[in-house]
Design a protein that fits this description.
Immunoglobulin-like; TIM Barrel; 16 helices; binds calcium ion
């Protein structure tokens, strides 16, 4: 009896030692008919490296089995050049132990490659999912996750917002008149703290369960599409969270940059284009880690590059998104990121990606845009870049008295004159603020100045580029970065059950908030489908007598915007503007009034006219 128990124990013991345990299979499935026919399947499990790998597929073939330094990883490269949709097994075998992993090469959705990405006909509405609305309190805290409580009073704690919250307010967003939603990262961030912002991914193939499930995300994208809007997904290739298994159990020494000890990036990404840059600075800016909890992935490792590129394509194909916003784009390897943009464009020719190119000047931003002369003969293949310098200028131009020499709109005019550095100005993402900057109004008391708001929105929505509006701008939410990043990401009032104020509804908004909201809604809905704004040329005049004027023109239609940059009333001669004034009167789309365009025009202080011809 004792002997039998011992034998049984030995059998169970050896089984537990030798049983093949596969924790992760990434991606879990793929599709037939993609342009790139090489698929990397990453297998992760205790000591799986000793296993022989085979597949039972008919049309899918094994190209290569790569074993890394770490015995817990196998990279299976499959050849899909002859693949048709099929289900098969991936089999890991070691002696008598066998692990069977069901796998599928799916059929692509009809028209998947033909989707149209976001462009200048769109206006993006940026949402931080944890802070917009809590539609499902049951997912606020997930037992077993490292940060497992909500605290709405904390700047850096989780507040409980989720996909259901966004889904519940899609009518509000659609009615406002934006045409796309950019979500701050939604992938799992199982970090001990600060997980709410989402920039420390711990799983590249799963959304954070505190936002919902993968299926709920797909359903949300579908629902946004049924309202005629697009979805832009935030992705981060530069780094992952330090709790990602890539970092806690590194596949190989060269999976990360600076593998021996934490070295912080200099954040001086101009070293990537500086013709005089030292090798030291080039390396430090791109290979240094963003922060200690975000280890820097080595995109020069071809397996890492393949993993990341495939991951983005998986999300496009799986969830149906229309665009990607790539975090810290200039901090990642230039050549790999270029290859990524190229591969995405090969699969989806009209898809769009915007890179977070946070540089303080247009030369730096322009360098990263597709077809930039500044980067020649290299090419980033990145269609859209972020116009951070314009954001800076806009945040003071509407306050200053415009002079002929340098202040107010003269700075905007001068900056736009330098558009000569950009390969494509219509693909620039333009914005007054985002989740990382002070809001357009830093202080609550300043929001009473609605002229500033109206001029800024009018300019943002009629100049060149793709406008982005940060959630809450329409209700005059104010925040100063010096008070902390969490403050820039406050909850949208009314997004939580029991909120005293529900700013999703007009009756709960202040008169000023309603004036801002109605104005924004009017402009956005006028802009929607307007080809003059989406495709038209831009012609601007040197500001004169405190007034700035420009024309957008497409075919025989035009829009003329006249902005007063002065605190006093101005009367201007229209003689100088005759090349953009084809008629003696035009309708101002803001007031609805017909404006007579005789010899002179008198403009009240800080007024804006949007004239349609
Ligand atoms: Ca929730």
């Amino acid at each position: 009896m004792k002997k039998n128990v011992l034998i049984l124990f030995f059998i169970l013991f050896s089984y537990s030692i030798f049983a093949i345990d596969v924790k992760n299979v990434e991606p879990a499935f793929w599709w037939a008919g993609m342009k790139n026919t090489e698929l990397q399947v990453l297998l992760y499990g205790d000591n799986i490296v000793k296993s022989e790998v085979s597949i039972t597929a008919k049309s899918t073939k094994i190209k290569e089995v790569v074993k890394l330094e770490n015995a817990n990883y196998i990279l299976l490269y499959l050849d899909l050049s002859g693949a048709t949709p099929e289900k098969f097994d991936i089999i890991l075998q070691e002696g008598k132990q066998k692990k069977v992993i069901p796998y599928e090469i799916k059929e692509r959705k009809q028209g998947s490659s033909q989707r149209v990405g976001f462009n200048a006909s769109d206006v993006l509405y940026l949402i931080m999912p944890d802070r917009f609305a809590n539609g499902d309190p049951s997912n606020d805290a997930i037992p077993g996750m490292r940060e497992s409580k909500v605290d709405r009073n904390g700047q850096y704690t989780r507040h409980g917002g989720d996909f259901k919250g966004v889904s519940d307010h899609l009518d509000y967003i659609h009615d406002l008149g934006v045409t796309a939603i950019w979500f701050n990262p939604v992938l799992e961030n199982d970090m001990k703290e600060g997980s709410y912002h989402g920039y420390a991914s711990t799983d590249y193939y799963k959304v954070d369960r505190r936002f919902g499930t993968n299926q709920e995300f797909v359903d949300l994208v579908d629902k946004v599409h049924t309202k005629g809007m697009k979805v832009v997904m935030d992705m981060i290739f530069n780094h992952c969270g330090s709790e990602h298994y890539f970092f806690t159990d590194r596949p190989s020494r060269d999976w990360f940059n600076f593998p021996d000890k934490y070295v912080q990036t200099s954040y001086k990404t101009m070293s990537q284009f500086d013709p005089h840059a030292s090798n030291f600075d080039k390396k430090l800016s791109a290979d240094g880690w963003f922060v200690e909890t975000m280890p820097d992935l080595n995109q020069r490792n071809p397996h890492v590059a393949k993993y990341l590129i495939q991951n983005s394509i998986w999300w496009i194909e799986y969830s149906g998104i229309d665009g990607i916003r790539q975090d810290t784009h200039p901090y990642a390897d230039y050549d790999m990121m270029a290859q990524w943009c190229k591969e995405v464009t090969e699969e989806y020719p009209d898809f769009n990606i915007v890179g977070e190119t946070w540089l303080n000047n247009n030369v730096g931003v322009a360098f990263w845009q597709k077809d930039s002369k500044l980067a020649h003969p290299k090419n980033s293949y990145l269609r859209s870049v972020m116009d951070f310098p314009l954001t800076d200028i806009m945040n003071s131009a509407f306050d200053q008295e415009t002079t002929d020499w340098g202040q107010g709109f003269s700075r905007i005019h001068e900056y736009l004159a330098q558009d000569i550095v950009y390969a494509n100005t219509m693909e620039l993402l333009i914005f007054l603020d985002n989740h990382d900057t002070s809001r357009f109004y830093k202080k609550e008391e300043d929001t009473s100045n609605l002229n500033r708001y109206k001029q800024a929105l009018a300019f943002l929505l009629t100049t060149r580029g793709i406008p982005q509006i940060y959630y809450g701008t329409e209700i005059l939410m104010a925040a100063d970065k010096s008070e902390g990043d969490g403050y820039l990401r406050r909850d949208f009032p009314g997004g939580w059950a029991g909120d005293k104020v529900n700013a999703f509804e007009a009756k709960d908004r202040t008169p000023n908030q309603n004036e801002a909201f109605d104005y924004t809604r009017k402009l956005l809905n006028w802009r929607k489908g307007n080809e003059v704004i989406a495709k038209g040329t831009l012609k601007q005049f040197v500001p004169y007598n405190g007034v700035y004027a420009y024309e957008r023109k497409y075919n025989n239609r035009s829009v003329v915007v006249i902005l007063s940059g002065s605190d006093s009333e101005k009367t201007i001669s229209l003689e100088r503007y005759k090349e953009i004034l084809p008629k003696s009167q035009a309708k101002d789309i803001i007031s609805g009034n017909t404006i007579s365009l005789g010899e002179t025009l008198t403009i009240s202080p800080r007024k804006v006219l949007i004239l349609e011809f």
